[in-house]
Amino acid sequence: MNNTDHKIRILIADDHPIFRSGLGRLLESAPGFKVVGEAADGNQAVALAQRLKPDVLLLDVAMPGKPGLDALRELSASGTTVCTILLTANIERSQLLEAL
Predict the structure, then answer these.
(1) What is the pTM of this model?
(2) Any residues with CB less than 8 A from the CB of 10 and at least 6 apart, and which?
(3) How many domains does the chain have?
(4) What pLDDT, in 10s, does the model give residues 34-84?
(5) Which of 4, 12, 27, 78 is the most exposed, having the fewest neighbouring CB atoms within 10 Å of its CB?
């Protein structure tokens, strides 16, 4: 496989199944992206990120069970390295600083 064949592996973590499905289909339709998994809550996001080792984690901030920032904190503490893009309709400055 050469560099032009490499697809960016993405994990989508959001508690809304319709949003996950739609975003996944949109990404899969674009060249260069492959959705490797979907998580409905923060606990699943952590487990799948550690197991699947995606290139990118699309992470909802407000999820049941374990909120996105808690999941991000757990991934960081475990040494799991993944580029993360936070999905949110609203985020407070303190949450943004914590995420960074």
Answers:
(1) 0.86
(2) 27, 33, 34, 35, 36, 54, 55, 56, 57, 58
(3) 1
(4) 999 999 999 999 999 999 999 999 999 888 889 888 999 999 999 988 999
(5) 4
